[in-house]
Give the backbone structure.
Amino acid sequence: MISVDFNNVVLPGNDVSHIVLKGDNCKRSEKTIGPGLKSVDNKIIVCNGGVLRCKDDKYFWIEYFKKKYIPAKDDVVVGIVAAKTSEMYKVDIGASELATLPYLAFTNATKKNRPDIKVGNVVAAKIKMATPFMESEISCVEYANSIIFGQLENGFLINVSLNYALRLRKSNSKLLYQLGQMVPYEIVIGANGKIWIHSASIRTTIAIGNAILNAEHLEEEDIPQLVKSFNKSLNI
Protein backbone atom coordinates (compact mmCIF):
# COMPACT_ATOMS: atom_id res chain seq x y z
CA MET A 1 0.00 0.00 0.00
CA ILE A 2 1.15 3.55 -0.75
CA SER A 3 1.91 5.84 2.18
CA VAL A 4 0.86 9.49 1.99
CA ASP A 5 1.57 12.73 3.81
CA PHE A 6 -0.83 14.51 6.17
CA ASN A 7 -3.35 16.96 4.63
CA ASN A 8 -2.84 15.54 1.13
CA VAL A 9 -5.35 14.01 -1.24
CA VAL A 10 -5.67 10.30 -0.48
CA LEU A 11 -7.22 7.41 -2.40
CA PRO A 12 -9.03 4.25 -1.27
CA GLY A 13 -6.47 1.70 -0.12
CA ASN A 14 -3.83 4.21 1.01
CA ASP A 15 -2.16 3.37 4.33
CA VAL A 16 -2.14 6.36 6.73
CA SER A 17 -1.08 4.45 9.84
CA HIS A 18 2.20 6.35 10.05
CA ILE A 19 0.21 9.58 10.46
CA VAL A 20 -2.71 8.53 12.64
CA LEU A 21 -0.83 6.15 14.94
CA LYS A 22 2.34 8.16 15.46
CA GLY A 23 3.32 8.68 19.10
CA ASP A 24 3.48 6.41 22.13
CA ASN A 25 0.87 3.77 22.96
CA CYS A 26 -0.80 5.99 25.56
CA LYS A 27 -1.53 8.68 23.00
CA ARG A 28 -2.63 6.13 20.41
CA SER A 29 -5.47 4.99 22.66
CA GLU A 30 -6.84 8.56 22.68
CA LYS A 31 -7.04 8.82 18.89
CA THR A 32 -10.25 8.35 16.93
CA ILE A 33 -10.83 7.74 13.24
CA GLY A 34 -13.89 9.15 11.55
CA PRO A 35 -15.62 8.99 8.15
CA GLY A 36 -13.50 7.71 5.27
CA LEU A 37 -11.08 5.69 7.42
CA LYS A 38 -11.18 2.14 8.79
CA SER A 39 -8.94 -0.13 10.84
CA VAL A 40 -7.70 -3.26 9.06
CA ASP A 41 -5.13 -5.62 10.63
CA ASN A 42 -3.80 -2.91 12.97
CA LYS A 43 -3.47 -0.48 10.06
CA ILE A 44 -5.51 2.62 9.27
CA ILE A 45 -6.71 2.39 5.67
CA VAL A 46 -8.50 4.98 3.53
CA CYS A 47 -11.89 3.79 2.26
CA ASN A 48 -13.07 7.03 0.58
CA GLY A 49 -11.00 9.27 -1.66
CA GLY A 50 -10.56 12.85 -0.44
CA VAL A 51 -8.35 15.01 1.80
CA LEU A 52 -6.95 13.66 5.06
CA ARG A 53 -7.89 15.99 7.93
CA CYS A 54 -7.00 16.12 11.62
CA LYS A 55 -8.31 17.91 14.72
CA ASP A 56 -6.19 18.35 17.87
CA ASP A 57 -3.97 15.45 16.72
CA LYS A 58 -6.65 13.11 18.10
CA TYR A 59 -9.47 12.91 15.56
CA PHE A 60 -8.73 11.96 11.94
CA TRP A 61 -11.13 11.76 9.02
CA ILE A 62 -11.36 12.07 5.24
CA GLU A 63 -13.02 15.16 3.83
CA TYR A 64 -14.78 14.00 0.69
CA PHE A 65 -17.87 14.83 -1.33
CA LYS A 66 -20.92 12.91 -0.18
CA LYS A 67 -24.64 13.49 -0.43
CA LYS A 68 -25.81 11.37 2.50
CA TYR A 69 -24.75 12.22 6.02
CA ILE A 70 -23.04 9.37 7.88
CA PRO A 71 -23.24 9.92 11.66
CA ALA A 72 -19.94 10.02 13.54
CA LYS A 73 -19.48 10.16 17.31
CA ASP A 74 -19.25 13.70 18.77
CA ASP A 75 -20.57 15.38 15.60
CA VAL A 76 -22.80 18.38 16.27
CA VAL A 77 -26.00 18.02 14.24
CA VAL A 78 -29.22 19.95 13.66
CA GLY A 79 -32.33 17.83 13.22
CA ILE A 80 -36.11 17.92 12.98
CA VAL A 81 -38.22 15.92 15.43
CA ALA A 82 -40.13 13.41 13.29
CA ALA A 83 -41.91 11.31 15.93
CA LYS A 84 -42.37 10.71 19.67
CA THR A 85 -42.55 7.46 21.62
CA SER A 86 -43.08 6.79 25.31
CA GLU A 87 -39.37 7.15 26.08
CA MET A 88 -37.72 9.10 23.28
CA TYR A 89 -37.96 11.35 20.26
CA LYS A 90 -37.12 10.24 16.74
CA VAL A 91 -35.10 12.92 14.98
CA ASP A 92 -34.39 13.35 11.27
CA ILE A 93 -30.71 14.30 10.95
CA GLY A 94 -30.43 13.49 7.25
CA ALA A 95 -28.95 10.02 7.78
CA SER A 96 -30.30 6.72 6.46
CA GLU A 97 -32.09 6.12 9.79
CA LEU A 98 -33.82 8.46 12.24
CA ALA A 99 -31.72 9.21 15.32
CA THR A 100 -33.04 8.51 18.83
CA LEU A 101 -33.13 11.27 21.44
CA PRO A 102 -34.09 10.02 24.94
CA TYR A 103 -36.26 12.33 27.03
CA LEU A 104 -33.56 12.38 29.72
CA ALA A 105 -30.81 13.41 27.27
CA PHE A 106 -31.39 17.11 28.01
CA THR A 107 -29.68 19.37 30.53
CA ASN A 108 -31.49 19.17 33.92
CA ALA A 109 -34.11 16.76 32.55
CA THR A 110 -35.72 14.28 34.96
CA LYS A 111 -38.56 11.77 34.74
CA LYS A 112 -40.91 14.41 36.16
CA ASN A 113 -39.39 17.33 34.27
CA ARG A 114 -39.31 16.33 30.61
CA PRO A 115 -38.72 18.80 27.78
CA ASP A 116 -41.85 19.93 25.95
CA ILE A 117 -40.76 19.34 22.37
CA LYS A 118 -43.25 18.62 19.61
CA VAL A 119 -43.04 16.91 16.24
CA GLY A 120 -41.68 19.41 13.72
CA ASN A 121 -39.50 21.28 16.23
CA VAL A 122 -35.81 21.79 15.46
CA VAL A 123 -33.09 20.64 17.87
CA ALA A 124 -29.32 20.88 18.06
CA ALA A 125 -27.56 17.86 19.51
CA LYS A 126 -24.34 15.88 19.62
CA ILE A 127 -23.95 12.34 18.30
CA LYS A 128 -23.51 10.19 21.40
CA MET A 129 -23.38 6.81 19.69
CA ALA A 130 -23.02 5.97 16.00
CA THR A 131 -23.12 2.39 14.75
CA PRO A 132 -23.24 1.34 11.08
CA PHE A 133 -26.68 0.23 9.86
CA MET A 134 -28.36 1.11 13.18
CA GLU A 135 -30.07 4.15 14.65
CA SER A 136 -27.72 6.75 16.06
CA GLU A 137 -28.28 8.13 19.55
CA ILE A 138 -28.02 11.87 20.07
CA SER A 139 -27.89 14.02 23.20
CA CYS A 140 -28.89 17.60 23.99
CA VAL A 141 -26.94 17.80 27.25
CA GLU A 142 -25.02 21.09 27.21
CA TYR A 143 -21.25 21.06 27.45
CA ALA A 144 -18.75 23.76 28.39
CA ASN A 145 -18.74 25.54 25.04
CA SER A 146 -20.72 28.14 23.12
CA ILE A 147 -22.88 25.72 21.10
CA ILE A 148 -26.61 25.84 21.81
CA PHE A 149 -27.99 22.35 22.52
CA GLY A 150 -31.67 21.54 22.79
CA GLN A 151 -34.66 23.07 21.04
CA LEU A 152 -33.92 25.86 18.55
CA GLU A 153 -36.81 28.29 18.44
CA ASN A 154 -37.96 31.09 16.13
CA GLY A 155 -35.22 30.60 13.57
CA PHE A 156 -34.76 29.74 9.92
CA LEU A 157 -33.44 26.35 8.73
CA ILE A 158 -31.45 25.90 5.52
CA ASN A 159 -29.69 22.91 3.97
CA VAL A 160 -26.23 23.01 2.41
CA SER A 161 -23.78 20.39 1.15
CA LEU A 162 -21.84 18.47 3.80
CA ASN A 163 -18.48 19.79 2.60
CA TYR A 164 -19.72 23.39 2.70
CA ALA A 165 -21.06 22.90 6.24
CA LEU A 166 -17.65 21.61 7.27
CA ARG A 167 -15.96 24.69 5.81
CA LEU A 168 -18.38 27.03 7.58
CA ARG A 169 -17.78 25.29 10.92
CA LYS A 170 -14.16 26.40 10.88
CA SER A 171 -13.54 29.24 13.33
CA ASN A 172 -11.90 31.38 10.63
CA SER A 173 -14.91 31.53 8.29
CA LYS A 174 -14.55 34.89 6.54
CA LEU A 175 -18.20 34.97 5.47
CA LEU A 176 -19.69 34.42 8.93
CA TYR A 177 -17.28 36.91 10.49
CA GLN A 178 -18.12 39.68 8.02
CA LEU A 179 -21.87 39.06 8.31
CA GLY A 180 -21.49 39.31 12.08
CA GLN A 181 -19.82 42.69 11.68
CA MET A 182 -22.96 43.95 9.93
CA VAL A 183 -25.77 42.46 12.03
CA PRO A 184 -25.96 40.40 15.25
CA TYR A 185 -27.24 36.86 14.73
CA GLU A 186 -27.15 33.34 16.14
CA ILE A 187 -26.18 30.34 14.08
CA VAL A 188 -25.81 26.59 14.64
CA ILE A 189 -24.09 24.69 11.84
CA GLY A 190 -24.65 20.95 11.85
CA ALA A 191 -22.09 18.53 10.46
CA ASN A 192 -25.11 17.00 8.68
CA GLY A 193 -25.54 20.06 6.43
CA LYS A 194 -28.46 21.64 8.29
CA ILE A 195 -27.97 25.24 9.48
CA TRP A 196 -30.22 27.11 11.92
CA ILE A 197 -30.13 30.92 11.85
CA HIS A 198 -31.83 33.47 14.10
CA SER A 199 -31.65 37.27 14.22
CA ALA A 200 -33.70 40.27 15.34
CA SER A 201 -36.07 40.14 12.35
CA ILE A 202 -37.37 37.61 9.85
CA ARG A 203 -36.12 39.76 6.97
CA THR A 204 -32.56 39.82 8.32
CA THR A 205 -32.62 36.10 9.10
CA ILE A 206 -33.70 35.22 5.55
CA ALA A 207 -31.08 37.59 4.10
CA ILE A 208 -28.34 35.88 6.13
CA GLY A 209 -29.56 32.48 4.95
CA ASN A 210 -29.53 33.61 1.32
CA ALA A 211 -26.02 35.05 1.70
CA ILE A 212 -24.74 31.75 3.09
CA LEU A 213 -26.39 29.78 0.28
CA ASN A 214 -25.06 32.13 -2.41
CA ALA A 215 -21.50 31.95 -1.06
CA GLU A 216 -21.06 28.19 -1.36
CA HIS A 217 -19.25 28.27 -4.70
CA LEU A 218 -17.53 31.64 -4.32
CA GLU A 219 -13.81 32.19 -3.88
CA GLU A 220 -12.56 33.93 -0.72
CA GLU A 221 -11.81 37.14 -2.62
CA ASP A 222 -15.45 37.35 -3.77
CA ILE A 223 -16.89 37.30 -0.23
CA PRO A 224 -16.58 41.10 0.39
CA GLN A 225 -18.67 41.83 -2.71
CA LEU A 226 -21.35 39.42 -1.51
CA VAL A 227 -21.39 41.12 1.90
CA LYS A 228 -21.80 44.51 0.20
CA SER A 229 -24.84 43.16 -1.65
CA PHE A 230 -26.14 41.85 1.67
CA ASN A 231 -25.76 45.31 3.25
CA LYS A 232 -27.50 46.94 0.31
CA SER A 233 -30.45 44.53 0.51
CA LEU A 234 -30.98 45.51 4.16
CA ASN A 235 -30.16 49.21 3.64
CA ILE A 236 -27.43 49.06 6.29
In short: The domain at 156-235 is CATH 3.30.1370.10 (Ribosomal Protein S8; Chain: A, domain 1).
